[in-house]
Amino acid sequence: MISFELDQLMAVADQHVDSTLTVIGYVTHTCKHSGKRCFIVGESQKTSLRVESGGEIESFSPELIGSKLAITGSLKEFHLSGESINEMESNVKQLEQEEGMAETCAAELSNISEMRQWMKDHGKSYYVIYYMEGLSYKIVDN
Questions:
Q1: Strand bridging mode 20-30 / 68-81
Q2: Please, where are the H alpha helices in 1-81?
Q3: What is the CATH number of the domain that holds 44?
Q4: Domain identity same for 62 and 107
Q5: Residue 14, domain extent
Q6: pTM for the complete prediction?
Q7: Rounded Cα distance, 4 and 30, in Å
Q8: Judgement on whether residues 16 and 39 belong to the same structural domain of the protein
Q9: pLDDT band with cut points at 50, 70 and 90 for residue 62
Q10: Alpha helices in the chain (DSSP H)
């Protein structure tokens, strides 16, 4: 089975969609209510990946936050349409006007701009969000 550090995987993720693989990263968040998902980051902490529980994984315990995990599962992708991105931008601008949350809104608008730039660079009418349907995990010693 192929194994990747998260930063390495994100560079070639489009080539491994629907593949079963192992990804290694640090847990930054587990969903408090159900524990059905967690988020991991790589060494650079610039990219993150959502992992959904499945297979042998019943849930992700909050005690895993900060742990380095090797998670095996199937890499999936979600397409966020250009229309959805336009709607997000409109909502952010409306919130900015109504609530005066300029700093938060500037960060959101920057993310939207990065999504549009990625779409342009890749000749796509959608933005790709990768996630994993987890099957199993083990804690990796640092």
A1: antiparallel
A2: 6-12
A3: 2.40.50.140
A4: no
A5: 3-79+127-139
A6: 0.85
A7: 21
A8: yes
A9: very high
A10: 6-12, 82-99, 102-122
